[in-house]
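re: ur question from earlier - yeah i can do the single chain one, its not a big deal. heres the input i used so u can compare w yours
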Amino acid sequence: MMTNWISAPELDKFTDYWYTTANNITRDWYCIIDIHGGPTSAITQVDHDSTSYPHRNALWKFELYDRVANNVAYPAGGQKFLNGWVDTVQDTYPGTLGMYINYADPELNATQAHNQYWLGNYEKLTDIKKKYDPNEVFMNPQSVFASKW
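and the output i got, formated as tokens:
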């Protein structure tokens, strides 16, 4: 998830979840918080629509990851843990939190992925995809599609 700011109540909810829920999860999980720079960083010097990456004004990037080791099956409903953590920020954030395709969320459907990963750049990316990969050789359920999804 990507955000331009986090209010004190959101930060409190995020850290409370860490202490009350995440600390009780025995699977291998981690949380990475990247300081992305915000509206005055060098990242914003490139227009948000000049590349596929539209999140140039974000201040924070969060990667929440959860896994099991040694070929053990991931528990049914296990994703609820990470989704609950995202909700601590998303429920009080006014607007759309973007997502970074390199921190992919396997639970997103195509529409959600297209809206979150590429925001307003999706139509332009579709045109490029039609030109260079009209037969969908490079495709996954969350990728840019050459045809209507």
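The longest strand covers residues 28-35. not sure if urs matches, ping me
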